[in-house]
TrEMBL record:
CDD domains: DUF820-like. Residues 19-195 form the Putative restriction endonuclease domain. One of its GO terms (molecular function) is endonuclease activity. Keywords: Endonuclease, Hydrolase, Nuclease. It comes from Limnofasciculus baicalensis BBK-W-15. This is Uma2 family endonuclease.
Length: 200
Protein backbone atom coordinates (compact mmCIF):
# COMPACT_ATOMS: atom_id res chain seq x y z
CA UNK A 1 0.00 0.00 0.00
CA UNK A 2 1.32 3.44 -0.93
CA UNK A 3 0.61 6.41 1.33
CA UNK A 4 -0.51 9.47 -0.56
CA UNK A 5 -0.16 12.63 1.53
CA UNK A 6 -3.03 15.11 1.31
CA UNK A 7 -2.67 17.86 -1.26
CA UNK A 8 -1.51 21.02 0.48
CA UNK A 9 -3.13 24.35 -0.34
CA UNK A 10 -1.66 27.81 -0.19
CA UNK A 11 -3.59 30.52 1.63
CA UNK A 12 -4.38 32.18 -1.70
CA UNK A 13 -5.66 28.93 -3.27
CA UNK A 14 -7.84 28.29 -0.21
CA UNK A 15 -9.36 31.79 -0.39
CA UNK A 16 -10.05 31.41 -4.10
CA UNK A 17 -11.69 27.99 -3.79
CA UNK A 18 -13.15 27.90 -0.27
CA UNK A 19 -13.07 31.46 1.07
CA UNK A 20 -16.85 31.87 0.94
CA UNK A 21 -17.64 28.37 2.17
CA UNK A 22 -18.20 28.39 5.97
CA UNK A 23 -17.69 24.64 6.11
CA UNK A 24 -13.90 24.77 5.64
CA UNK A 25 -10.78 26.23 7.16
CA UNK A 26 -7.08 25.76 6.41
CA UNK A 27 -4.45 24.62 8.91
CA UNK A 28 -0.83 24.33 7.76
CA UNK A 29 -1.96 23.84 4.17
CA UNK A 30 -4.45 21.08 5.01
CA UNK A 31 -8.13 21.60 4.26
CA UNK A 32 -10.26 20.97 7.35
CA UNK A 33 -13.96 20.16 7.09
CA UNK A 34 -15.52 21.63 10.22
CA UNK A 35 -18.50 19.27 9.87
CA UNK A 36 -21.18 21.66 11.13
CA UNK A 37 -24.52 20.12 12.12
CA UNK A 38 -27.83 21.75 12.94
CA UNK A 39 -27.26 21.55 16.71
CA UNK A 40 -23.70 22.91 16.28
CA UNK A 41 -25.02 25.94 14.38
CA UNK A 42 -27.83 26.44 16.91
CA UNK A 43 -25.30 26.63 19.77
CA UNK A 44 -23.06 29.05 17.84
CA UNK A 45 -26.03 31.25 16.93
CA UNK A 46 -27.33 31.31 20.50
CA UNK A 47 -23.92 32.32 21.87
CA UNK A 48 -23.52 35.02 19.21
CA UNK A 49 -26.97 36.39 20.02
CA UNK A 50 -26.26 36.64 23.74
CA UNK A 51 -22.93 38.38 23.13
CA UNK A 52 -24.53 40.78 20.65
CA UNK A 53 -27.24 41.66 23.16
CA UNK A 54 -24.52 42.74 25.60
CA UNK A 55 -22.67 44.67 22.88
CA UNK A 56 -25.85 46.68 22.24
CA UNK A 57 -26.74 47.08 25.91
CA UNK A 58 -23.26 48.32 26.83
CA UNK A 59 -22.94 50.39 23.64
CA UNK A 60 -19.61 48.75 22.79
CA UNK A 61 -17.94 49.58 19.48
CA UNK A 62 -17.76 45.89 18.53
CA UNK A 63 -19.34 43.79 15.80
CA UNK A 64 -19.98 40.12 15.08
CA UNK A 65 -19.55 39.39 11.35
CA UNK A 66 -21.56 36.57 9.81
CA UNK A 67 -18.50 35.08 8.14
CA UNK A 68 -14.85 35.80 8.92
CA UNK A 69 -11.41 34.22 8.64
CA UNK A 70 -8.33 34.81 10.76
CA UNK A 71 -4.97 34.69 8.99
CA UNK A 72 -2.29 34.31 11.66
CA UNK A 73 0.74 36.30 10.42
CA UNK A 74 3.24 33.66 11.54
CA UNK A 75 1.43 30.80 9.75
CA UNK A 76 1.90 30.82 5.99
CA UNK A 77 -0.91 28.46 4.93
CA UNK A 78 -3.47 28.83 7.71
CA UNK A 79 -6.92 30.42 7.66
CA UNK A 80 -8.95 29.86 10.83
CA UNK A 81 -12.74 30.25 10.76
CA UNK A 82 -14.15 30.69 14.30
CA UNK A 83 -17.79 29.83 14.88
CA UNK A 84 -18.22 33.27 16.47
CA UNK A 85 -15.81 36.19 16.31
CA UNK A 86 -16.15 39.59 17.96
CA UNK A 87 -14.24 42.44 16.32
CA UNK A 88 -13.26 45.90 17.50
CA UNK A 89 -14.67 48.28 14.86
CA UNK A 90 -12.05 50.96 15.37
CA UNK A 91 -9.26 48.49 14.59
CA UNK A 92 -10.71 47.46 11.22
CA UNK A 93 -9.04 50.43 9.50
CA UNK A 94 -5.68 48.72 10.18
CA UNK A 95 -6.71 45.46 8.52
CA UNK A 96 -5.00 45.11 5.12
CA UNK A 97 -7.52 42.66 3.59
CA UNK A 98 -10.81 43.68 5.24
CA UNK A 99 -12.06 46.02 2.49
CA UNK A 100 -11.92 43.21 -0.09
CA UNK A 101 -12.37 40.05 2.00
CA UNK A 102 -13.67 39.30 5.52
CA UNK A 103 -10.16 38.35 6.66
CA UNK A 104 -8.49 39.50 9.88
CA UNK A 105 -4.69 39.58 10.11
CA UNK A 106 -4.13 41.54 13.35
CA UNK A 107 -4.93 40.02 16.72
CA UNK A 108 -5.60 43.51 18.10
CA UNK A 109 -8.79 43.63 16.00
CA UNK A 110 -10.24 40.56 17.72
CA UNK A 111 -11.84 40.82 21.16
CA UNK A 112 -13.15 37.27 21.43
CA UNK A 113 -13.37 34.02 19.48
CA UNK A 114 -15.73 31.14 20.15
CA UNK A 115 -15.41 27.60 18.87
CA UNK A 116 -18.26 25.10 19.18
CA UNK A 117 -16.80 21.62 19.36
CA UNK A 118 -17.50 19.03 16.70
CA UNK A 119 -15.69 15.81 15.84
CA UNK A 120 -12.45 17.66 14.94
CA UNK A 121 -12.07 18.87 18.53
CA UNK A 122 -8.28 18.39 18.59
CA UNK A 123 -7.71 21.57 16.56
CA UNK A 124 -9.88 23.66 18.89
CA UNK A 125 -8.38 22.43 22.16
CA UNK A 126 -4.73 22.34 21.07
CA UNK A 127 -3.70 24.23 17.95
CA UNK A 128 -6.15 27.13 18.23
CA UNK A 129 -5.39 27.77 21.90
CA UNK A 130 -1.79 28.44 20.89
CA UNK A 131 -2.66 30.43 17.74
CA UNK A 132 -5.18 32.70 19.46
CA UNK A 133 -2.88 33.31 22.44
CA UNK A 134 0.02 34.13 20.09
CA UNK A 135 -2.24 36.66 18.33
CA UNK A 136 -3.03 38.27 21.69
CA UNK A 137 -6.79 37.68 21.52
CA UNK A 138 -8.12 38.54 25.02
CA UNK A 139 -10.57 35.65 25.30
CA UNK A 140 -11.24 32.34 23.62
CA UNK A 141 -14.32 30.30 24.50
CA UNK A 142 -14.88 26.64 23.74
CA UNK A 143 -18.45 25.35 23.91
CA UNK A 144 -18.22 21.56 24.09
CA UNK A 145 -21.95 20.93 24.39
CA UNK A 146 -21.68 17.18 23.72
CA UNK A 147 -18.59 16.54 25.85
CA UNK A 148 -16.51 15.36 22.87
CA UNK A 149 -13.10 16.70 23.94
CA UNK A 150 -10.40 14.48 25.30
CA UNK A 151 -10.32 13.81 29.05
CA UNK A 152 -7.07 15.80 29.31
CA UNK A 153 -9.11 18.85 28.26
CA UNK A 154 -12.53 18.35 29.87
CA UNK A 155 -11.82 15.80 32.60
CA UNK A 156 -13.60 12.65 33.62
CA UNK A 157 -16.42 11.80 33.38
CA UNK A 158 -16.72 13.45 29.98
CA UNK A 159 -19.65 15.84 30.03
CA UNK A 160 -20.82 19.09 28.43
CA UNK A 161 -18.20 21.72 29.24
CA UNK A 162 -17.79 25.43 28.51
CA UNK A 163 -14.20 26.67 28.80
CA UNK A 164 -13.25 30.34 29.00
CA UNK A 165 -9.60 30.96 28.14
CA UNK A 166 -8.57 34.40 29.41
CA UNK A 167 -5.26 35.85 28.21
CA UNK A 168 -2.82 36.62 31.01
CA UNK A 169 0.52 37.82 29.67
CA UNK A 170 1.15 35.74 26.57
CA UNK A 171 -0.78 32.60 27.53
CA UNK A 172 -4.32 31.61 28.38
CA UNK A 173 -5.65 30.69 31.80
CA UNK A 174 -8.59 28.30 31.33
CA UNK A 175 -11.65 28.12 33.54
CA UNK A 176 -14.27 25.42 33.03
CA UNK A 177 -18.01 25.53 33.59
CA UNK A 178 -20.51 22.68 33.60
CA UNK A 179 -24.27 22.55 33.26
CA UNK A 180 -25.98 24.67 35.91
CA UNK A 181 -22.97 26.92 36.51
CA UNK A 182 -22.89 30.63 35.64
CA UNK A 183 -20.18 31.29 33.04
CA UNK A 184 -17.76 34.05 34.01
CA UNK A 185 -16.10 36.17 31.33
CA UNK A 186 -13.53 38.77 32.43
CA UNK A 187 -14.02 40.44 29.03
CA UNK A 188 -17.80 40.79 29.44
CA UNK A 189 -18.37 40.52 33.20
CA UNK A 190 -22.03 41.54 32.95
CA UNK A 191 -22.86 38.64 30.62
CA UNK A 192 -25.44 36.33 32.16
CA UNK A 193 -24.92 32.94 30.59
CA UNK A 194 -25.02 29.28 31.48
CA UNK A 195 -24.20 26.35 29.24
CA UNK A 196 -27.80 25.24 29.78
CA UNK A 197 -28.96 28.43 28.00
CA UNK A 198 -27.29 27.51 24.71
CA UNK A 199 -27.75 23.72 24.65
CA UNK A 200 -29.60 22.66 21.47
Amino acid sequence: MIYTPPKLLTFEAFIEEYGDNPRYELIDGELRDMEPTGPHEAVAGSIAGRIYREILRLNLNWLIPKNCLIKPPAAVATALRPDVIVLDKKELSHEPLWQKEPIICNGSTVKLVVEVISTNWQDDYARKVEEYAFLGIPEYWIADFRGLGGIQFIGRPKQPTFTVYHLVGDSYEPRQFRLGQAIVSPLIPSLQLELDDVMP
